[in-house]
């Protein structure tokens, strides 16, 4: 079974202010719409793979795993409270502009996507949502709260940050519940100067369309580097899988479907070609792969693994041009009338587990590749060296990672 809980968290603090009393609004119930499952996360720039490259550069030789959907949604929500250059940087980073039509497109796109992804789905669990924990003594603007509720289905909870331990427990208990206890004790320390915590979570759990047999799992070598080899439990199965060979990007690509409408896309660079793949990979290429996959009989070897990623995004996003919001010069005038409120931390944490029981399947656009003809003879593909993993639902990249040390 595959469990993929992810959480993005922002800590908002106030520096020595006199704060007015504000009554916290009640939580808005989640909107229910007919299942359509066709919306793509709104963005015109390649935020997902730019962020991947920034995280890899900051995690040399380590596993990388994150949810671009969770992070981009958190930034979109944050832009609702930002003004002037602070807002412009966030929107530009997400591939949008300050023009009202572009900003409206961003928020309405996420609104529709949330409604679709949160519909009950046969075959896998996918829970996506947000919450605001706000101090009742802080005046959070009604327009901001209203839009957070209507566009992002955010729950709002009054929280007494003057009791840091109580606030920490309230938030950690909520996070543990939403991620089925896969992310616990997220907040270790909380100061009495904090006035708001924004949380965005995504939890995914699914079974492979066809499970791997436990009897076929064997200890095999995994080559972390040409010089370093470790033993890992390696699953194996001979079956029809989505497959292609990308000669331009020097990699093999295998799509393993889950029950339901989702796919694990596994990318195995040729020997010594990991950096070329990482530099060249983008959303357009991934969509081309999904559109041009062929089914082929493969003897697939895939390690069981459990990895997690934890990132301080206030240190990563400035490399992508999103910097002012994490400084004392941040303009958060649409969030509150208090000019001394600032973002003190933006944390993203993700956990993934892959074993014989499973996960899901997907599709997308275009063609530029040379494929080997699909013969009936099985081809063996062994993921016994570092590879990339992305989990796709329709056009949406839910998760993206690099498995360096299973």
From TrEMBL:
GO terms for biological process: seminal clot liquefaction; spermatogenesis. It holds the Pfam family Serpin. This is Serpin family A member 5. Residues 23-35 have a biased composition (Basic and acidic residues). Residues 1-16 form the signal peptide. Residues 19-42 are annotated as: Disordered. One of its GO terms (molecular function) is phosphatidylcholine binding. The gene is SERPINA5. GO terms for cellular component: acrosomal membrane; external side of plasma membrane; extracellular exosome; platelet alpha granule; platelet dense tubular network; protein C inhibitor-coagulation factor V complex; protein C inhibitor-coagulation factor Xa complex; protein C inhibitor-coagulation factor XI complex. It comes from the Eukaryota. PROSITE patterns: SERPIN. PANTHER family: PLASMA SERINE PROTEASE INHIBITOR, SERINE PROTEASE INHIBITOR, SERPIN. Belongs to the serpin family. The keyword Signal applies. Residues 49-406 form the Serpin domain. Keywords: Signal.
């Amino acid at each position: 079974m595959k469990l993929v809980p992810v959480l993005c968290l922002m800590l908002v603090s106030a520096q020595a202010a006199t704060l007015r009393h504000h009554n916290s609004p009640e939580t808005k119930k989640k909107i229910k719409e007919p299942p359509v499952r066709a919306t793509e996360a709104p963005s015109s720039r390649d935020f997902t793979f730019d962020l991947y490259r920034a995280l890899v550069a900051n995690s040399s030789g380590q596993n990388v795993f994150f949810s671009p959907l969770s992070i981009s949604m958190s930034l979109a929500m944050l832009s609702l409270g930002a003004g002037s250059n602070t807002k412009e940087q966030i929107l530009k980073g997400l591939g949008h502009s300050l023009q009202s039509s572009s900003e409206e497109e961003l928020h309405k796109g996420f609104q529709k996507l949330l409604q679709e992804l949160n519909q009950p789905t046969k075959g896998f669990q996918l829970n996506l949502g947000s919450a605001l924990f706000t101090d009742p003594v802080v005046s959070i603007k009604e327009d901001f709260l209203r839009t957070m509720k209507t566009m992002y289905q955010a729950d709002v909870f009054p929280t007494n940050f003057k009791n840091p331990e109580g606030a920490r427990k309230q938030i950690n208990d909520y996070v543990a519940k939403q991620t089925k206890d896969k992310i616990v004790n997220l907040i270790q320390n909380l100061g009495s100067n904090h006035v708001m915590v924004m949380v965005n979570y995504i939890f995914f759990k699914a079974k492979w369309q066809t499970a791997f047999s436990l009897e076929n799992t064997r200890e095999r070598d995994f080559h972390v580097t040409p010089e370093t080899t470790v033993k890992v439990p390696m699953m194996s199965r001979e079956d029809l899988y989505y497959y292609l060979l990308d000669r331009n990007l020097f990699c093999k690509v295998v799509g393993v479907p889950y029950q339901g409408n989702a796919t694990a896309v596994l990318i195995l660079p040729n020997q010594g070609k990991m950096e070329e793949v990482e530099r060249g990979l983008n959303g357009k290429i991934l969509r081309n792969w999904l559109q041009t996959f062929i089914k082929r009989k493969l003897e697939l070897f895939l390690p069981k693994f459990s990895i997690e990623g934890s990132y301080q995004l206030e240190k990563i996003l400035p490399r992508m041009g999103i910097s002012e919001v994490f400084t004392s010069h941040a303009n958060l005038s649409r969030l509150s009338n208090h000019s001394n409120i600032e973002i003190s931390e933006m944390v993203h944490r993700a956990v993934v587990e892959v074993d014989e029981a499973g996960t899901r399947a997907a599709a997308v656009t275009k063609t530029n590749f040379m494929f080997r003809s699909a013969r009936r003879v099985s081809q063996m593909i062994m993921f016994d060296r570092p590879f990339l993993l992305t989990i796709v639902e329709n056009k949406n990249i839910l998760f993206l990672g690099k498995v360096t040390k299973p």
